[in-house]
Amino acid sequence: MANIHIILQGKGGVGKSLIASTIAQYKKAKGQSPLCIDTDPINQTFTGYKALNVETLKIMEGDEINTRNFDQLIEKIASSNDDVIIDNGAATFVPLAHYLITNDIAQLLESLGHKLIIHTVVTGGQAMIDTISGFSQLAKQFPQPSLFVVWLNRYWGNIEHDGKHFEDMKAYKENKDRVSSIIQIPQLKEETFGKDIEELLQARLTYDEAAQNSDLTIMTRQRLNIYKKDLFAQLDAAAVLS
User: What is the β-pairing status of strands 179-185 and 164-165?
Assistant: First the structure.
């Protein structure tokens, strides 16, 4: 049985490709060979990671799902013995989520021996309310047996509203039975860790490639290694990812 990891969040620029690439690198570090697919029609950041052998698949035709290409995606998933990681862009969030739900894709994958795991991002800052609402809508709309992994990204500020942290908020309490794991993306100081991760993403380098890159300073490589260890330790503790 393979786990099908799909990253869904309607807000752009919140770290979806960082999450997709991190999951792929974690799987590879465990000796696995995940099938990586980028369906973002605009910003194909995931595809840029050459070390991850990401396939690009166009599933949209204008504002609608291209059913033939989506059928091709399902065929790829159905025949995979390895976990699948799908990075999806904000521009395709609404039509893809609707298509997955109305076509009972979670149940279909379950019947094929696979499990659908939806990864979504909640951020601090101005996008916090929108991303929390996005999580709540997904959890309510996607039926069992799909599970959720929530990634908390505090880069733009703490995830806190009216004195409540995410786990105390109504959106989480109402849907916590659907949440398999919560991953805390390490909070980054802009002048050090933040700059290191930003440059890593821009260069489309994996953590291992960065560690071997002599063009990076020793301390940059050290900080990236600390960041990787923190994330990977959390993924080790997540049952649907380990």
Answer: unpaired
Write the pLDDT tens digit of every residue in 155-169.
888 999 889 999 999
Number of domains composing the chain: 1
Question: Taking Cα atoms as reference points, which of 101, 109, 96, 242 lies closest to residue 183?
Answer: 242
Beta bridge partners of 120: 150
| Domain carrying residue 29 | 3-187
Beta bridge mates, 150:
120, 182
Residue 138 belongs to some domain of the structure = yes
3-state helix, strand, coil in the chain (%, to 5): 50, 20, 30
- Other C-beta atoms within 10 Å of 79: how many? 10
CATH number at residue 168: 3.40.50.300
Per-residue burial over 81-116, b if 16 or more Cβ lie within 10 Å, else e, is eebbbbbbbbbbbeebbebbeeeebbeebbebebbb
Q: How far apart are CA 216 and CA 174, in angstroms?
A: 45
pTM: 0.94
Q: What's the CA gap between 223 and 194, in Å, rounded?
A: 10
Q: Where are the beta strands (DSSP E) in 71-230?
A: 84-87, 115-123, 147-153, 160-161, 164-165, 179-185
pLDDT, tens digit, 9 for 90 and up, residues 196-219: 888 998 999 999 999 999 999 999
Report cis status (omega within 30 of 0) of the bond before 145.
Answer: yes
Q: What is the mean pLDDT of residues 47-64?
A: 91
Question: Mean pLDDT score of the chain, rounded to an integer?
Answer: 92
